[in-house]
């Protein structure tokens, strides 16, 4: 209670804004993930990797808009591209000049996406990929993994009451090779597709075992089903996503987050024969509507970011920085005997109050939410903004100084975390 009082005393303007929002939105909220007790902070401005809240406190942004903020805040190149699109009339009710160029830039990075389409979000991209897989195969079942997150209407943690699309789901467990192989074979000719994140993101930054992911590729092929890689979060982990690192060519891929340059974005694409079901020049094709699918701001921002900022060299440097940061934090935690691990790959990571790295979300069932809250509020107090669930995503403006400062803060706090967690 005293910690909550101190938090209220330090953040009166955020509290007032929250109270106001509660009058017009349930719980004052329009993105469930942003809610926390006693009230969430309201950020009012950002620049590079810095944020300022409504009460004037500043933070280093280690959340990076839940991975979509890869370019940092108001990158000048992206801001200029958006400015030009605004000056040009924003959306013109037609195809635009930059659409094909943006699609080409994506296809160059993701050769498996022979043809692709844009959506407004990663959720929509996944909805369309699943609908397409069912249509293209003429089959009804969709395999998903327990604890997976494929968007607001495709969410599979056991702890949640989902608001999900009513597909005929077959559940299996992430990284369990033999059980999953068997489930695919058992489902046989009813299986339309398997959808998988090559690293579970919201599930806790849990990397897929390459052997597990390769098995999915082989078994879906043998079953005549499609493999859908949800790379909405993992696309930043190399210039061409995890599929290029793993050398796996999924039938369909979905993208989102940073690829839109910080604007609303999603895309799905894959095998030309499958994607051609959306070709409106063909009789009986599938419709795919969406007023803002090709919105000019996203096309401009996304193209500028991918071609001018997130170059292959920048992608490698960012992910090396993340690997190093994760190793350093894990070394500090282990030395302090804190019973805390940081999982992830490259620029994406999650702090967990558990002894060993999770291999599937069930391994985190015993994690103590109070410990997660403790890191979150302690780091906030030290001027670092991460997700309350422990997710961190590096952005391009984060440099050595910011990483050093975070490691220093963690080193200072770790003995107390060890004492409280043990
Ligand atoms: N798929 C994955 C793996 C995600 O992490 C997310 C978002 O966090 C989504 C899909 C949904 O994307 P959006 O929030 O743009 O709808």
UniProtKB/TrEMBL annotation:
The organism named in the record is Nitratireductor mangrovi
Extract the GO molecular function terms from the UniProt entry: pyridoxal phosphate binding; transaminase activity
What does the sequence similarity comment in the record state about its family?
A: Belongs to the class-III pyridoxal-phosphate-dependent aminotransferase family.
Its ancestry begins with: Bacteria, Pseudomonadati, Pseudomonadota, Alphaproteobacteria, Hyphomicrobiales
Keywords in alphabetical order: Aminotransferase, Pyridoxal phosphate, Transferase
**Cofactor(s) required for function per UniProt:** pyridoxal 5'-phosphate
- What Pfam families does the record point to? Aminotran_3 (PF00202)
Please report the name of this protein according to its UniProt entry.
Answer: Aminotransferase class III-fold pyridoxal phosphate-dependent enzyme
**UniProt entry tagged with the keyword Transferase:** yes
Superkingdom of the organism of origin: Bacteria
InterPro entries, per the entry = Aminotrans_3 (IPR005814), PyrdxlP-dep_Trfase (IPR015424), PyrdxlP-dep_Trfase_major (IPR015421), PyrdxlP-dep_Trfase_small (IPR015422)
**Where does the secretion signal sit in this chain?**
none
